[in-house]
């Protein structure tokens, strides 16, 4: 190593912004599935993850909401909870929460400085540099194992499961919310292939809860559990949930599981949130029954009622009525369409959307186009954005079969101008929705809620 390189290694990061910039500068190393770099990095730290209890949550959609239900309810029950999720909506620190509060900026800086020389040591090996997500994951583990010591960590996968960086941990319970088509370039393009990747989080003897619906996906999860001798709880088999009521303030569903049954009220909208909440409730019930996580029924109910997750059918304005929803794949669009029909079927829909490349946009559009009166196509402020004009070509192709006869299409690449148009076009009795990639949702949300410290990224 040259003197210059040594000096660079030794120089500590001076500020929070330096630390975030250093971590984000690892983005060009991309998504490189595999656990060898994170395992080496954590071994240099003394394997701190082995001292923590994790609830590992995988799935195509609903992971974040399920994590929110688990966190809120465990907190309500008096437990100290770490929550690691991605991508973030407002600020880099959102990823690393303890008792629903972001990691303090100075703590993140200290931990980044602890990690930096070790990351450089790993980068000097044949394994190459750890990625941004690997360093963020290591930072989360350090935060929980050495700074705040939660009773349990709600631990969301980044992508897939089997080779996802978060799979370096052995949890006390594994959760698979659902299976759909997303990241098919990495996870495979059949339900079976995607399920095999997600089922990779299942560990020997660790119980599994799932709300997966496709028979072929359930078969793979069941076979994996049998091989690993893991107890499996499947929605529709070991537990059921039934929506009882839905209105503009929330919804109520009936849960019936092996250990109790109860009615649960949610403020989060959409039938899919009943599925996510039931999944979280079954998970908590296993923890209560077998791992001494004691929870009063009243706390369970309060925890589910107060749970919130930004950017998921989130109302941000009443006049005009504007809703943000980070649906960005076919299953997300289907869910969004069903929620609109359940709650706002009588309103004209003005939809603003922006996407990243490499997604199943045609299938997405087939679900949502039949409801749209005015479509504003824009572009997220992100390096892998999809060209709005390209999106328009796709819409034109689908228009004869799926769109309303008088669909008005506007192409406005600037998301700021597109948002002004949305506000202008959404009249008193209309519904304005911003949907698509969370990178767009993050910017729009910060703008509408006047969040001056908003950042954006993975």
From TrEMBL:
**What EC identifiers does the entry list?**
6.3.2.17
User: What keyword terms does UniProt attach to this protein?
Assistant: ATP-binding, Ligase, Magnesium, Metal-binding, Nucleotide-binding
- Supply the name of the protein: tetrahydrofolate synthase
Quote any Pfam family the record assigns. Mur_ligase_C
Q: What does the sequence similarity comment in the record state about its family?
A: Belongs to the folylpolyglutamate synthase family.
State the SUPFAM superfamilies in the record.
MurD-like peptide ligases, catalytic domain, MurD-like peptide ligases, peptide-binding domain
Instruction: Give start and end of each Mur ligase C-terminal domain.
Output: 311-437
Top class in the EC scheme: ligase
Q: Where is the Mur ligase central domain?
A: 152-283
Taxonomy, superkingdom: Bacteria
């Amino acid at each position: 190593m040259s003197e210059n390189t040594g000096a660079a290694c030794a120089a500590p990061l001076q500020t929070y912004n330096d630390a975030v910039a250093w971590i984000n500068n690892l983005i060009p190393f991309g998504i490189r599935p595999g656990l060898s770099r994170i395992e080496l990095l954590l071994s240099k730290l003394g394997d701190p993850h082995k001292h923590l209890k994790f609830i590992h949550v995988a799935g195509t959609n609903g992971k974040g909401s399920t994590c929110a239900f688990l966190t809120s309810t465990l907190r309500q029950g008096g437990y100290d909870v770490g929550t690691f999720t991605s991508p973030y909506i407002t600020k880099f620190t959102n990823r690393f929460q303890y008792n629903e509060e972001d990691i303090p900026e100075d703590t993140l800086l200290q931990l980044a400085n602890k990690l930096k020389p070790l990351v450089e040591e790993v980068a000097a090996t044949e394994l190459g540099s750890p990625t941004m997500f690997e360093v963020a994951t290591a930072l989360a583990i350090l935060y929980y194992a050495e700074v705040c010591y939660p009773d349990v960590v709600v631990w969301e996968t980044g992508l897939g499961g089997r080779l996802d960086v978060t799979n370096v941990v052995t949890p006390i319970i594994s959760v698979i919310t659902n299976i759909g088509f997303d990241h098919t370039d990495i996870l495979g393009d059949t339900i079976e292939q995607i399920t095999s990747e997600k089922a990779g989080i299942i560990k020997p003897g660790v119980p599994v809860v799932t709300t997966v619906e496709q028979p072929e996906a359930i078969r793979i999860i069941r076979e994996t559990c049998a091989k690993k001798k893991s107890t499996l709880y499947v929605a529709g088999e070991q537990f059921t949930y039934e929506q009882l009521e839905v209105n503009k303030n929330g919804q109520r569903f009936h849960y019936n599981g092996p250990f109790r049954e109860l009615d649960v009220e949610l403020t989060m909208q959409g039938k899919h949130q009943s599925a996510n909440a039931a999944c979280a409730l079954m998970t908590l019930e296993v923890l209560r029954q077998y791992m001494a996580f004691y929870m009063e029924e009243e706390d369970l109910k309060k925890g589910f009622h107060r749970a919130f997750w930004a950017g998921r059918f989130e109302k941000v304005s009443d006049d005009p009525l504007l809703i943000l929803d980070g649906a960005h794949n076919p299953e997300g669009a289907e869910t969004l369409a069903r929620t609109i029909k359940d709650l706002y079927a009588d309103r004209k829909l003005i939809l603003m959307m922006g996407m990243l490349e490499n997604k199943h946009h045609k299938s997405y559009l087939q679900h949502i186009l039949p409801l749209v009166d005015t479509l504003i196509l824009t572009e997220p402020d992100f390096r892998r954005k999809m060209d709005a004009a390209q999106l328009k070509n796709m819409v034109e192709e689908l228009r004869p079969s799926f769109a309303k006869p008088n669909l008005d299409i506007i192409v406005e690449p600037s998301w700021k101008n597109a948002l002004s148009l949305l506000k202008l076009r959404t009249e008193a009795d209309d519904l304005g929705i911003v949907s698509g990639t969370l990178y767009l949702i993050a910017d729009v949300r910060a703008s509408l809620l006047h969040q001056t410290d908003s950042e954006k990224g993975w």
